[in-house]
Amino acid sequence: MIRRGITNLRYSCYSLVSNRLSTRLVFSARCCSNKDNDRTSVGNAKSNERDRTSPFSTLEKYKIFKDEDSPVIFDIVEERFKTLQYDTETQDGYQGLNLERGKDGVFDIEHLVDLLQQEQAQHIFVLKIPEEVRYVNYLVIVSGKSVRHMIALAEFVKLVYKKKRNDSDRIPKVEGEDSGHWIAMDLGNIALHIFSATARKTYDLESLWSVGAEYDELSRKPEDPVLEILQKHSVYLRDLEPANSGE
After folding, report:
1. pTM of the full structure
2. Which helix (H) or strand (E) holds 141?
3. Alpha carbon distance 170, 57 (integer Å)
4. Quick one: DSSP state of residue 67?
């Protein structure tokens, strides 16, 4: 009986020690797990802090502003010319045009007419000027559909001229571009006039150059009513003599 009691006592003590040891192991494992989690959290926090303070992380998130990336804002004149360039300089803008210099000048007359027809110039009028006039070889008069179309015609003629010309050929000046009614260009051997519909009727250059000033009603029209009265009585005035002419 005594031996059995001692055996039971030893067994109870062994069980108690085993339970305490297992409890300590579980507690130790939990503590290690919590420490690992704390270390991971601290590491993530430090990593996030480095991301916030590192300039390289900012470069990845935000695009650096550069002058060349900013849009260009044109003034009124540049914007208008830019729009005209867009209308005239298309991908195949020169297709079908002769870009070689002409024989009589930068433009031969037939090449200029082809260009004007392609750009839908209206009522193309061509007149050969006599050599004794010593002006140009040809006078070309066209009409534009609108002010914008008139300017586009002149600018495109100028662009093609620059493609065709030699270094010795001067670049023509576009005159009257801001008038809105009459644009003139001296192409060397050709004088080009681009009119609005109303201005073309008003000035009637076709009649002035084709029939002459003596048959052109506009050129013969008196500029002043007083001058008109004097012209009507010019014959009578020529016949008058001073009162003391017989003395």
Report:
1. 0.51
2. strand 138-143
3. 58
4. G
